[in-house]
């Protein structure tokens, strides 16, 4: 069983992602704001992070960059999700961002992407 941290502020998307990750046989841990995301990830040491772009407190771009410069978190793969497909370019220099999935996404696409990086 792998540990996946979900950083998403929309409750309905959080619940759907959590159920999907658990159906894949993994542990799902949810954080709903950007202010706590970095410390949450450091505390739980996940195998993968699913990260939204638009978050209260700190956006997904800043979180991904912070994870990349910290020795403890730099190797954790990140899958970014966003309704703003144009925000994909903001992550071009962040090596641990492995994929970008535009919202709305299908369960099939997200499942394939998670399985690819776990």
Automatic annotation (TrEMBL):
Read off the Pfam families from this record. Answer: Response_reg
The alphabetized UniProt keywords are: Phosphoprotein
SUPFAM superfamilies from the entry? CheY-like
Give the modified residues of type 4-aspartylphosphate.
Answer: 52
Residue ranges annotated as coiled coil are: none
Gene Ontology BP, a term: phosphorelay signal transduction system
PROSITE patterns this protein is in? Answer: RESPONSE_REGULATORY
- The record places domain Response regulatory at 3-118
By what name is this protein known?
A: Response regulator receiver protein
* Origin species: Elusimicrobium minutum (strain Pei191)
Q: What is the lineage of its organism?
A: Bacteria, Pseudomonadati, Elusimicrobiota, Elusimicrobia, Elusimicrobiales
